[in-house]
Fold:
Amino acid sequence: MKHQINSLLAAKNATVGVSILAGDGSEYISINGNKKLPMQSVFKYHLALAVLDQVDKKNLSLSDRVSISQKDLDNNLWSPIRKKYPNGTNLSLAEVLKYTVAYSDNVGCDILFNMVGGTKVVEAYIHQQGIMDVAIEYDEITQQLVWNRMYENWTTANAAITLLKLFYENKDNLLSQGSHQFLWDTMKSSATGKDKIKGSLPKGTIVAHKTGSSGSNKLGLTGADNDIGIVFLPDGRHFYIGILVSNSTETSEVNKKIIADISKIAWDYFKN
Structure:
């Protein structure tokens, strides 16, 4: 599997961090797995964990109403919430989380960061779980003002899948049963990146994942095209996969195909 992935990456003009782990821990491969690479919207998974921790501590409730004003929506951020409610709205916390995680809504994201106390609170929560290879400096609106800021919101591919495993297995009850169910149902319903981890997998394959993408700058450089997630095999087994494509001069289609092809290599390997 590692040889196949290395062959695939050899001719690509990009830095690619790859980390893949069998659900039972029996097989593990890492390529550039400790490289610090920009997350982009992958950090909405980290944010959701911190929000659900506050829910479990009874500081917040999934049924809390969250007011979203026209002022909150008055920006150029990607926002399905704005598309549906251009004049503002009042949503439950559960709905804002779903928009943020499953639809990668940036307005919802920044509202959630404010609710929990900011980016450094989320970063500290992840560090408290023993996952140190993560930095979250900026929310979406601040990050997007300056191209290079994305590099200060970084993770490694290894840290990304360790964090997936930790909260999926939930051995230490890091999340309540209800929050755990809510999180993974939401991750499975993700509407973004159908051409990334899921891109070359059989139709109907269940993948719980979070994507991230920077787009490209005027020099044709893509800072980040990412997908991290859990892929469920037909026999009920699963594997964790994190792919971070960074500083790529390839087209968007090629970047996504890198992710889809690596995912398919892993699928074929574990399925057999």
Remarks:
- Residues 2-271 form a domain with the Beta-lactamase fold (CATH 3.40.710.10).
- The longest helix spans residues 252-271.
